[in-house]
């Protein structure tokens, strides 16, 4: 723990913090997913009440006066019955949101109804993030999705007709058996509905997931070039890459996620939610229990959450790890203001080697990885970590 909560409350930077609310419920579990979520809804009402209470408590205790962005994720927040979702949105609307704050809710296609969209439209929500993943029935079956092309297409037609806010669509590429033409077809179909933002994720076979357990490399090929060529197609189509997996029309980058990547303060509430606040010397991380019964049984401000103070070299590395995800890279002035040192003095050898290979570049204002360099982000970070140590 920090010396006291007073230090967190006194921090000027924490007075303006984003809000993430984790709704850990889904109607079904996809075979590739390793996020904390459950399909048993019996504790849904109690968990929601505790989450609303925890959110209000965090805002008060940590001295948050302005909330620039809100993100309600999961899980599938729209798996909540409309009455419960309305209760949640009303509570968020009463928080100290900044004028014009970006407020996002995640949804899956099968949960989209005209009534849901009307509820969202009448609330603080102004951005909808929809987990399409693919329009191919084969790919959707491989991913263990409980919808098909017809559902995805028809629900997007409903959204196009009724939703006036921003729209972000999630797609997954490099799925076993997926071809370049399959992924590009997904992108073209998605673009036909006019989204402002597209997240294109390269599938990761996470240990312990049903997809990872069932994957047979001898009969199910994964072509890494699928994601690369699909990403190029997005760029050609006018969606500019601004982070490893995120693309947007000009002016429509996710403000909330950008705050994550810049390590700006945010609170995360609900079972499985994570917060990152500033202490003056580094970061204070709070990780809520990914366990519904323990979360409900816990008391006190942190509801039994695990905490961690991140300072010194660990803070620098986390700053590099998040900042180099963005195509704009890290502003030299921001790094100097945060750490009192120049980034070029902290990892000079790593930057020199990667610049010589045309995998990194430097201007008077920033350092960043090139388009090719971003493909090897993990290796760059290992090199930077080795130099820090």
CATH topology of the largest domain: pyruvate-formate lyase- activating enzyme
Q: What is the total tally of β strands?
A: 15
> Taking all residues together, what is the mean pLDDT?
94
Strand order, largest beta sheet? 7-8-6-5-4-3-2-1-9
Classify the secondary structure makeup into a structural class.
alpha/beta
Please name the CATH architecture of the largest domain: Alpha-Beta Horseshoe
CATH class call of the largest domain: Alpha Beta
CATH superfamily of the largest domain: tm_1862 like domain
Report on this model:
The protein has helices at about 5-10, 45-60, 80-95, 115-120, 135-140, 150-160, 180-190, 210-215, 225-235, 255-260, 290-295, 310-325, 330-340, 345, 350-355, 370-375, 375-389, and strands at about 20-25, 65-75, 95-105, 125-135, 165-175, 195-200, 240-245, 245-250, 265-270, 275-280, 280-285, 305-310, 330, 360, 365-370. It has about 400 residues and is an alpha/beta fold. The strands form three sheets. Strands 7-8-6-5-4-3-2-1-9 form a nine-stranded mixed beta sheet, with helices on both faces. A three-stranded antiparallel beta sheet has the order 10-11-12. Strands 13-15-14 form a three-stranded antiparallel beta sheet. The longest helix has 18 residues, at about 45-60. The two termini are about 25 Å apart.
């Amino acid at each position: 723990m920090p010396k006291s909560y007073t230090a967190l409350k006194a921090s000027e930077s924490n007075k303006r913090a984003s809000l993430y609310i984790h709704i850990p419920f889904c109607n079904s579990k996809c075979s590739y997913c390793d996020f904390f979520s459950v399909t048993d809804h019996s504790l849904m009402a109690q968990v929601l009440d505790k989450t609303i209470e925890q959110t209000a408590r965090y805002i008060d205790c940590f001295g948050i006066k302005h909330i620039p962005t809100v993100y309600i994720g999961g899980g599938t927040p729209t798996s909540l019955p409309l009455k419960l979702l309305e209760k949640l949105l009303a509570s968020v609307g009463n928080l100290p949101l900044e004028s014009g704050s970006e407020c996002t809710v995640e949804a899956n296609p099968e949960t989209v109804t005209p009534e849901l969209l009307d509820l969202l439209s009448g609330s603080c929500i102004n951005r909808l993030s929809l987990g399409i993943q693919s329009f191919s029935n084969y790919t959707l079956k491989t991913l263990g999705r409980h919808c098909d092309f017809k559902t995805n297409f028809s629900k997007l037609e409903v959204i196009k007709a009724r939703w006036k806010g921003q729209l972000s669509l999630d797609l997954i590429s490099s799925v076993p058996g997926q071809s370049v033409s399959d992924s590009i077809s997904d992108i073209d179909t998605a673009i036909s509905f006019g989204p402002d933002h597209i997240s294109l994720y390269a599938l990761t076979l996470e240990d312990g997931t049903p997809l990872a357990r069932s994957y047979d490399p001898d009969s199910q090929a994964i072509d890494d070039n699928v994601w690369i060529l699909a990403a190029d197609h997005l760029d050609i189509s006018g969606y500019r890459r601004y982070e490893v997996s995120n693309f947007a029309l000009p002016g429509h980058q996710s403000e909330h996620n950008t705050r994550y990547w810049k390590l700006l303060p945010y609170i995360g509430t609900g079972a499985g939610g994570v917060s990152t606040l500033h202490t003056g010397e580094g970061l204070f991380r709070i990780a809520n229990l990914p366990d519904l019964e323990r979360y409900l049984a816990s008391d006190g401000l942190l509801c039994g959450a695990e905490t961690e103070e991140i300072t010194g070299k660990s803070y620098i590395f986390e700053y590099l790890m998040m900042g180099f995800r963005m195509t704009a890279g890290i502003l030299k002035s921001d790094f100097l203001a945060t750490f009192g040192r120049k980034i070029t003095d902290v990892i000079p050898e790593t930057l020199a080697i990667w610049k010589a290979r045309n995998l990194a570049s430097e201007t008077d204002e920033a350092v960043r990885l090139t388009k090719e360099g971003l493909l090897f982000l993990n290796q760059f970070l290992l090199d930077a970590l080795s130099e820090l140590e």
